[in-house]
């Protein structure tokens, strides 16, 4: 019932030493792992959002980069990423020079948090639903 020849199924076991190259010092998901890797991940995700921002580089909007072909898309992505890096460096240097000159540098503006309105706030009261004259 089992196949023989070059397509035969085989069970292979590997000794623990075979995976040493890929061993992690800190087990994935532990508090120590999060402390070490979360800053780097947050930095990368923040830069991804920075490059995708539609007000500037709009890397996430395919309508902004209407080129055909993988090579053209790759090249444009590279140029947009380099432009985003240059913009970050320019902003940093401008802030650094203002601080060195003694000027006040206001904190970066952040978008206000989206307001989460409950349905109770939108629900009209019983008086507003009354028909046939002013409320008594």
Would you give an account of this structure?
This protein is 45% helix and 0% strand. By secondary structure, the protein is mainly α. The longest helix has 31 residues, at 70-100. It is extended, with a radius of gyration of 29 Å.
Jot down its keywords:
136 residues, mainly alpha, 4 helices, extended
Tally of DSSP β-strands: 0
Strand content: under 5%
Class of secondary structure makeup: mainly alpha
Uncertain parts? none
Give the end-to-end Cα distance, rounded to a whole number of Å: 89 Å
Main beta-sheet annotation? none
Query: What is the chains' assembly state?
Result: single chain
Choose one word for the global shape. Answer: extended
Average pLDDT for all residues? 78
Radius of gyration: 29 Å
N-to-C SSE string, H for helix and E for strand:
HHHH
The percent of residues in helical segments reads 40-55%
Q: How many alpha or pi helices?
A: 4
Sequence-ordered SSE layout with sheet pairings:
Elements: H1 31-52, H2 70-100, H3 119-122, H4 126-129
Quick synopsis:
The protein has 136 residues and is an all-alpha fold. It is 45% helix and 0% strand.
